[in-house]
Design goal:
This protein is α/β, with parallel strands linked by helices. The chain has 2 domains: 146 residues, Rossmann fold; 132 residues, Rossmann fold (3-Layer(aba) Sandwich). Strands 2-1-3-4-5-6 form a 6-stranded parallel β-sheet, sandwiched between helices. Strand 7, helix 4 and strand 8 form a beta-alpha-beta unit. Helix 2 runs parallel beside helix 3. The longest helix is centred in the C-terminal third of the chain and has 14 residues. The chain starts with a strand and ends with a helix.
Length: 300
């Protein structure tokens, strides 16, 4: 079977947890030993039996005609999705973009290999794949937990507004840092996004704050990449109340670590104990993912 991968995020934009899809593209290339493209060279492959497209913003892709032609020629297209905000083009539209036009002309609904369970019903070949576990890195130095500062990192999204308000209320009068490029966060709390030594940066804090989007709840999206990133360095995590049911679905009981104004102080004080307890969640995440993906690929 002739297969190839196309990454919609070019290498110049790769790096850091905010473009985790770049990890997926490289990891998939190495696991399946098939070529990875991000430019017009995808056309050198000709008609593919299977074309994997790793989700990303088309704003950064300067080779949409090429990937559009690859979509037209491929017998099978698999949309590798780790973010509900990055769906494939619609099968019916008045699209002008050559990439979107290719899907519309074929009336193509690709197979999804996705972290979003609600997308698994899209086609018979779609599967739930938790790509986010690649955020877990083996062998990293555990967080020293020397101070009591809370940390949230990530984008400001409309679906998290109520979550941010809950975080501000819980940490009122307590040290809180938000690492983000989003100007919507209060200037007094916002710090620069982590670029170099990402994992070394997050391990310097006392507790990590985990929240989710409203659409993540609706779409039954697997635990976010930051869940596995913080677990990597032993940073104790606290969770907003609406995360309990979602994470229980994936096998994580976080009910003892729910963040509210009444529990915040005690959770911070127990951060070392919490960090040790949460390390019981660690397993061979990448190995299990590799086994699943190889199984799925061998049966295409």
């Amino acid at each position: 079977m002739r297969s190839a991968i196309f990454s919609l995020i070019p290498s110049a934009k790769r790096g850091g947890s905010t473009v985790a899809s770049s990890w997926i593209a490289i990891w998939l290339r190495d696991l399946l030993e098939i070529p990875l493209y991000e430019d017009d060279k995808i056309l050198e492959e000709g008609s593919l039996d299977c074309l994997f497209i790793v989700n990303g913003s088309t704003l950064y892709c300067k080779h949409l005609p090429a990937i559009g032609q690859a979509v037209r020629d491929a017998k099978r297209v698999i949309w590798v999705q780790n973010d509900y905000t990055l769906p494939p083009p619609l099968p019916e539209s008045d699209a002008i973009s050559p990439f979107r036009r290719a899907f519309a002309d074929r009336k193509l609904v690709p197979d999804y290999w996705t972290t979003c369970e609600n997308n698994v019903h899209k086609t018979p070949g779609s599967r739930w794949v938790n790509w986010n576990v690649l955020g877990y890195k083996v062998g990293l130095t555990r967080a020293p937990l020397g101070h009591r500062h809370g940390l949230y990192y990530g984008a400001h999204r409309d679906g998290r507004v109520s979550a941010f308000e809950a975080i501000y209320a819980a940490f009122a009068g307590k040290p809180l840092h938000i690492s983000s490029t989003s100007a919507q966060f209060p200037d007094a709390l916002r710090i620069a996004p982590f670029r170099a030594d990402f994992y070394g940066s997050i391990r310097k804090y006392g507790v990590g704050i985990y929240c989710q989007d409203e659409k993540s709840i609706e779409g039954r999206t697997s635990p976010a990449t930051r869940f596995y990133e913080m677990l990597s360095v032993g940073l104790p995590m606290v969770f907003l109340p609406d995360c309990v049911g979602t994470l229980a679905h994936y096998g994580y009981d976080v009910s003892e670590y729910v963040l509210t104004p009444d529990t915040c102080f005690d959770l911070i004080e127990k951060r070392r104990e919490i960090a040790d307890e949460q390390q019981a969640w660690v397993k061979d995440f990448e190995g299990e993912l590799a086994t699943q993906v190889r199984y799925l690929y061998d049966r295409l």
